Amino acid sequence: MDNNEGLPPRNVSKDEYHFDDCEFDKSVSTINSRYSSVMTFLQQRRVFHATNEFGKILHTAQDLYSHANWVELGYPRDPRRPEKPEASDLVSFSGTKSAVDSSWTVPKGGSIVASDIILANDDWSPPLGWRIKKHGAGDFQSVLYNSTGVRQGRLLETGKGFLDGECSIPTAGYGGFTHEELNKDSPTNAKYKKARALAELQTANEWCRLVAKAGRADRDGLLLAMLVRPGANPHPANTRCRPVPDFNDAFHHRVTVAVESVQIRNDGDDSGSGEIQLSAAFYDNPQAFHKSVHKENRGGPMSLNTGALVPTKQLPEPMTMCVQRGTSVNWALHGWDNDEIGSEPNSNLFDDKGRFADSLLTGGRAKFSSEASGSLPLAWQDFNVRIRITQGGRC
């Protein structure tokens, strides 16, 4: 996204990719548009196209905190925890206070975005006779006054570049700040750690948003089975999908899903046997994603042909989760044909790196009541699967 070499597109000069030149509304529109692209790619099961688009979303979202004066305006707000922000420290139009699968809100110039903070969008100008005092409330905190001298608030703005002056407001005699003055990309900048902490928390919330949106598109199973490593924690703290503790009471109990059999319907290889790996996820509602378990098949890649059964000793281990009675839970399984075994770093991971991009083997997602039990057969595009659901005692 920062590339500025070679032939177009020269992404670094596109304000809407970086929240540059006070281009708030188009930057937000760019983020929302890319989410639509992510969902399209997930619908098409083009996983790595989806992750590429999601990475572009993250770049733009992170740049907001590095390129704007949000830190200078007093965020994160708790002086005792300057590098450990809360969700309330993030910009309101990022939608972190709305439903988990909500989109960013396209803000209007001159609107209030937090307490006394006014958005200075690139196409906005205050009424005639109003004025702006640069650094009026402290370093890089400009203050807007109406025509009678009454203070209206401080301005949220980003730095202007060399080629244009969209953050300038000639009607108020205001020149804004340069990109270099506000930029906090470098660790040598005194405000870098605060900007980075905010960007990281926004990134974590974007992951929660992605899971929820994938759930609306019936691609939550694909996302969680294929993009969460076993042993990883996909529930970041201080986010809308943060982990919640297990409750040892009559309203919660343990549910276990054990894989009884997996038959390969398509090994993914044009000739010879496939190098099959499986990945499973057991989780709660993707719109309230607080619990999950992730497992791959035991023993690593398996040389299997179409029609073959996965050896019992290599099936994924049983997966147990504490859930609330009367709710729904989800179990998903997908896989891949791994053609780069041992030849590249992290060669046992699902990826599109190295000489050979891994081929997705399409399974699916089963949704069932937390009170369910018994054996459940599942027929999916590339797998026939049978699981057994059992109920346990209190958590």
TrEMBL record:
Pfam families: VWA7_N. InterPro entries: VWA7_N. It comes from the Bacteria. Residues 14-75 form the VWA7 N-terminal domain. This is VWA7 N-terminal domain-containing protein. It comes from Arthrobacter halodurans.
